[in-house]
Write a structure and sequence with these properties.
Helix content is 32%, strand content 12%. The protein is of the alpha/beta class. It has one domain: Alkaline Phosphatase, subunit A, CATH 3.40.720.10. Strand 4 (171-173) and strand 5 form a beta hairpin. Helix 5 runs parallel beside helix 8. The longest helix is centred in the middle third of the chain and has 26 residues, at 221-246.
Length: 440
């Protein structure tokens, strides 16, 4: 009777290198993943400085509604989109609205007193509780059948170097902010191995490509499609590295490391690379929770690729009567929506490994903001745009609530994962329980 071989012995006998292991360990046909229950995933995508309400919110309620200009990029995903109007951040206390807007967004609880001075009379510190993504992560990681390698991943795009209340939205606990990774090469190293430098990465990527080809011969057709996605990602990273190497030192180069953050003209490129890494990480089941933070609260990106030279935050303070500024803000927010739409597209065209449908069918995307409107700094009508099918909500609708605390939405997210907690964040805003109407 032949001796039982471990998974690592099987891969070793195939001649697979350690660098390729993260790409293949969760392939269902190799028996490396628990495929008994349907996976559920969630991504929170953040963009700053409020929105332009009259170009954002649908006028209609129900399943017969029209997307306005900012949400127009979601048209291909209409049947999987849920627009939530009237969800408000009711948390008050220390700090200005930009600080509380991002610090309380996923925590639902007050900021600690501190020495970070914003635009209000009272300075503030970090949030006094953990964020909902980490609450759900802890719940999933506590069970063998839903545990993943990382639990959650925190992606960033041009998040400033500094660590303060304006730059963090995820918290592992009170006074414990989590820094997003906004360098795609650093995120790749986190996911697929630590590389000393880009030269090491080039050589490892070459070996990984060969290993992935070798594994393709012994897995199912569905897993071959997953491996093809991994190979495409590796090829793109190799091309990015080659482009970086070929550029002269006298020019700004897209070296996706801390220095490039100051060159925000690379923002679209970085966003796309991070999206590809996020999709790849979900396909490999490295995590089921992710945040995707584009800049930060009070973010001042200059979107010159849209023909806009002013900083976003500066424009968001202009009066509604300044038509040109309003048009620019609409273009800026539409670009953010395009990032959401691209993420939805990539998830939709990626098959669910070992299961039916696509990754989008089993993922809920939530696009949100720290403010409802930039020039008023209101915390009412915070944007919450949901896309996907991960939590089995009834999508394809526009819902209008009457100033409900966003804590109830946070509770609903936990319930969607089977984590039926009674309160989250400030319990005063949880008395009516999870948000009604989400499941129809």
């Amino acid at each position: 009777m032949p001796a039982h071989r471990t998974r690592r012995e099987f891969l070793r006998d195939l001649g697979i290198s350690a660098a390729a292991l993260p790409f293949v360990l969760n392939l269902p046909s190799l028996g490396f993943a628990n495929q008994q229950a349907r996976k559920k995933r969630m991504v929170v995508l953040f963009s700053p400085n409020g929105i332009v309400p009259n170009a954002f919110w649908p006028d209609e309620e129900g399943d017969c509604f029209a997307f306005k200009d900012i949400l127009a990029p979601l048209e291909p995903h209409r049947e999987k989109t849920l627009v939530l109007h009237g969800v408000c951040d009711r948390v008050r206390g220390d700090g200005d609205n930009h600080m509380r807007g991002i610090g309380c967004l996923l925590t639902g609880i007050e900021l600690f007193p501190g020495n970070i001075q914003g635009g209000s009379d009272t300075p503030a510190g970090w949030a006094s509780g953990l964020s909902i993504d980490q609450e759900i992560k802890n719940y999933l990681q506590s069970k063998e059948e839903t545990r993943t390698r990382f639990g959650s991943l925190e992606f960033g795009v041009l998040v400033p170097e500094r660590a303060d209340t304006w730059t963090r939205m995820s918290y592992s606990g009170p006074n414990k902010p989590i820094a997003p990774i906004d360098d795609p090469y650093q995120m790749f190293a986190k996911l697929y191995g630590r590389m000393k430098d880009q030269e090491n990465l080039r050589s490892v990527l070459d070996a990984v490509q060969e290993d992935l080809k070798r594994v393709s011969a012994v897995v199912s057709a569905a897993d071959r499609r997953v491996l093809e996605e991994h190979q495409a990602l590796v090829r793109e990273l190799e091309q990015e590295l080659a482009d970086t190497k070929s550029q002269s030192i006298g020019h700004a180069v897209p070296q996706l490391e801390p220095g490039v953050r100051e060159d925000n003209d690379k923002m679209p490129q970085i966003s796309k690379m991070q999206i590809e890494l996020l999709v790849s990480s979900f396909a490999a089941d490295f995590a089921r929770l992710a945040t995707f933070q584009i800049t930060n609260s009070v973010g001042g990106a200059r979107m010159r690729w849209l023909g806009i030279d002013e900083g976003h935050h500066e424009l968001s303070h202009h009066e509604d009567s300044k038509t040109e500024s309003q048009e620019k803000l609409i273009k800026i927010n539409q670009w953010y929506c395009e990032q959401l739409a691209y993420l939805a597209k990539r998830l939709a065209e990626t098959p669910e490994p070992g299961g039916g449908g696509s990754l989008l069918d089993n993922t809920l995307l939530i696009w949100t903001n720290e403010l409802g409107k930039g020039n008023s700094h209101t915390l009412d009508n915070i944007p919450f745009i949901c896309v996907g099918g991960g939590l089995d909500w009834q999508m394809g609708r526009s819902l209008k609530y009457k100033r409900v605390p966003h804590n109830r939405l946070l509770l609903s997210l936990a319930y969607g994962f089977g984590h039926e907690i009674k309160t989250f964040g400030n319990p005063d805003f949880c008395t009516d329980g999870p948000l009604t109407g989400l499941t129809g």
